[in-house]
Amino acid sequence: MNKNNKNLFIKTWGCQMNAYDSHRMADILRPLGYSTVDGPEDADMVVLNTCHIREKATDKLFSELGRLREHKEKKAAQGEKMILAVAGCVAQAEGDEILKRARYVDMVFGPQTYHELPEMVAKSIGAFGPARIVNTEFPVESKFDFLPDEQATQGPSAFLSIQEGCDKFCTFCVVPYTRGGEFSRPAQAILDEAKHLTDCGAKEITLLGQNVNAWHGAGVAGGTWNLAQLINAVSEIPEIKRIRYTTSHPRDMDDDLIAAHGEIEKLMPFLHLPVQSGSDMVLQKMNRKHGRDFYFEIIEKVRKTRPDIALSSDFIVGFPGESESDFDQTIDLIEKIKFSSAYSFMYSARPGTPAANMAPLIPDPVKTERLARLQDLINKQAIDFNRQFIDQTLPVLFDRKGRTSGQIHGRTPWNQAIHVCAPDDFCGTIKDVRVTEAFSVSLGGEIMDEAHATDRKRA
Ligand code: SAH
Ligand code: SF4
Ligand code: F3S
């Protein structure tokens, strides 16, 4: 093997921003001769891009590291080095601890330092002997200013980070500590990256941020833009057919953004708007900075501008002090709103967050029971939502091969996953598909021939 060609394996946990970061790390390491591979076996460098949002993250990391140690030792026996790196939010939170507990880890670096990777790799290989590195700074300069233009293709549906960090400080959440304060990239840099992604084949762009609708960046001709203005500018790129954004905070759903859902055709009719709880008392203890009525008002406005919008949310059950009647309020909110999907979690105390000191704790069996009840309801709503599309013809953007051969995977405008038997080269195209089956998390369908499709298409 040519020694200038090195294998890089990146394993990613956590949110879509971590997935985006993993792509960018690969981009940055490519000029150094690293190309990505699917497993750690022959890797010259392994990066674990970690998530700290709920407990067990650290346990998971250490058991993964234990397995990788064997690969590393096998390679060392052959006289070769495998660089073992821990990145992401656990690295940020527990950098020194990781280096201390796992002597074979070469580098630990936080989410804001990826642009310094070439330097870190050079130090780790070390002309004067290898160095172990911990880099959990929040540099004054933005990592985005240093990332290379050259990017690997993300395929037909691509992520684009437009905003980092969070200033909201919900009492349960580690993100403000692991990702730092809110930062919005300038519009021009975002538009340049969007054009670049389309050159690499992207048809759909998902704008990402921990609080994406708090984005307020430098506009193209000066001034400050809001997210609606940015989406409008992105929609003017002809190759982009679909736009999405995630994750939003209810407090930042401003009128312009709500109006955009009625005005910008390329903006897909799907909104992920986490509410966490339906109880005013719990929302207050969570420091979400709004009550349940405010959430209903926002949803009502959104549905007025885009009646067919699919709604999704995140829920936490068993937050300290959540009584049975608080939980009933959450169930009531779900029953009233009707979601097309949702993520739900048992509350997990995170060290260093204010809620970690709150009482009374909710016993695990109660949390488990509440979670099951909530998920049952969400499942029913998801199936109801999906079933209404049976026999309808929908435009589907195909983005990748399916799990079984001969099958490909795509998404409807409402963000439903759909599997269809069709050739692989349909990936990257939008085709009319008749929905034949509906489950809670996906649909099945068949490609319509063009003549057949036109008069049956949903508006
Ligand atoms: N910025 C987003 C969410 C980021 S984290 C927002 O404000 O909505 C993704 C989800 O993880 C959260 O919405 C929440 O539901 C869940 N989560 C975060 N911290 C958690 C904790 N300590 N315990 C359980 N779930 C948590
Ligand atoms: Fe965490 Fe709250 Fe910020 Fe979301 S808004 S990232 S839940 S602190
Ligand atoms: Fe996890 Fe960090 Fe994302 S904690 S959810 S990877 S911002």
Set out the fold topology:
Elements: E1 6-12, H1 16-29, E2 34-36, E3 45-50, H2 57-77, E4 83-87, H3 88-101, E5 107-109, H4 117-125, E6 133-135, E7 157-161, E8 163-164, H5 175-178, E9 183-184, H6 187-199, E10 204-208, E11 216-218, E12 224-226, H7 227-235, E13 242-246, H8 255-263, E14 270-272, H9 280-285, H10 292-305, E15 310-317, H11 324-337, E16 341-346, H12 364-387, E17 393-401, E18 407-411, E19 417-421, E20 430-438, E21 442-447, H13 450-453
Parallel strand pairs: 1-2, 1-3, 3-4, 4-5, 5-6, 7-10, 10-13, 14-15, 15-16, 19-21
Antiparallel strand pairs: 8-9, 11-12, 17-18, 17-20, 18-19, 20-21
Helix pairs in contact: 7-8, 11-12
The protein binds S-adenosyl-L-homocysteine, iron/sulfur cluster and FE3-S4 cluster.
The site of S-adenosyl-L-homocysteine has 17 residues, from strand 15.
Shape label: globular
Structural class: alpha/beta
Quaternary class: single chain
Radius of gyration: 23 Å
The low-confidence runs, each spanning 5 or more residues with pLDDT under 50, are: 451-459
Spatially, the strands of the biggest sheet line up as 2-1-3-4-5-6
Main sheet, how many strands, which sense, barrel?
6 strands, parallel
Q: What is the number of helical segments per DSSP (H or I, 4+ residues)?
A: 13
CATH topology grouping of the largest domain: pyruvate-formate lyase- activating enzyme
How big a fraction of the residues is strand?
15-25%
